[in-house]
Design brief:
By secondary structure, the chain is α+β, with helices and mostly antiparallel strands. It contains seven helices and eleven strands.
Length: 275
Amino acid sequence: MQFADLANQSVESVRAAIRAGNYAGHTAGLAKGRLQCNLAILPADEADDFLEFCRLNPKSCPLAGVSEPGRPIIERLGEAVDIRTDTPLYNVYRDGVLSEQLQSLEAIWRDDLVTFAIGCSFTFENALVKAGISMHHIENNTTVPMYRTSVETAQSGRFGGGMVASMRPIARDRVNEVVDICRRFPLAHGVPFHVGNPQAIGVCAIEKPDWGQPTPVGDDEVPVFWACGVTPQVAIMQAKPALSITHAPGAMLIADVDEMTAPLYPYNDNKNPSF
């Protein structure tokens, strides 16, 4: 199936297509109104350090939920959502190196795997589109450009490395409006962390993103950068766990909760999982 086949479908129809292996593309603009999440899946003996990495780096890793070891669901995201099958495409890393891409994790799922669901920028994109602010990658059915930056994350155990940023060209006279809108969505990375000169954050070739497709910046626009949920993938590649799994960039897990009201994960809640 193609993106156009699912663009105006219900979340149930979109999820059914993904679960059946009929769609492996990006999810920006699909199942409007539902929270979309980046994924990081790790063995339980790595989970405490990664949880702390997320706590220390909330703009890159705003947690929406954490599973118990071996459970392929996160109840606060919806009991009908199966972590193993409901993301269009998964990246599987072995010893920190991308080894394969899969549309289902059923064959490699283990009882010690812990899933971290991390908020996604698609939420604030929907709000910006409603405000009449152009999103080039959605309009052109491409994946948002993402870049490695020179901005370092806070280290936790073996997890660390540089922040990844997503970029969207924004009209110069609407940047302040964009900041005000994004401020309402801490689970979607919140406000941009940089506006303007890409070289200032270590992005030397804006026309050559590390992930996604290039997006032109018009004469009346400026490049605006947000912390990105691909940052955990860089941290995982640095940590080199024997097995780890993430979403493929742009291909998110679609939850059953409202993107406007979904809460951040309560780090200080006594119900936090014990790994």
